[in-house]
Amino acid sequence: MFCTALILLPLGVSGVGFLSDLVLLQRSKQHVKTSIYAAGVCLSADLLSVGKLELDIPLATSKIRKEFLDRLPAMLAGRLTLIAVEIVFRPVVYDPSHWQGENQPKRLPIIRIRAAFWDRFGQRILLEDSLEYLID
User: Fold this and answer.
1) pTM of whole model > 0.85?
2) Phi, psi at residue 18, to the nearest 5°?
3) Does residue 4 form part of some domain?
4) What pLDDT, on the 0 to 100 scale, is given for residue 120?
5) Burial (CB count <10 Å: 0-12, 13-18, 19+), residue 81
6) At what angle do helices 2-35 and 57-70 cross, to 10 degrees?
């Protein structure tokens, strides 16, 4: 009986640790995904009204970073770090039959966020998410 306990106890402890890391990893993915939506407030309402999708890049980057750090759950402090926030633009091919006509956007912003989750063994797991704003 004692030998069985000596064998099962480490397995149980490592199993609980594994499940804990799995839950924290899922929570980290959710946090990265929700942080990226902070850039939506940086879209210009005046330009959106005429069909142009312009994003204030420095403001959007700082908003995402602030949202990521301000809303970081206590259980992820020290385990999840923000690596980079990138905003790139994808060109849009002009279509004369587009419903916006001449106001069709010439480019669309794509926001990428990259973070690292550190598991209990100190291994880094990269998390990446992206969001493309469309006006179509």
Assistant:
1) no
2) -65, -45
3) no
4) 87
5) middle
6) 150
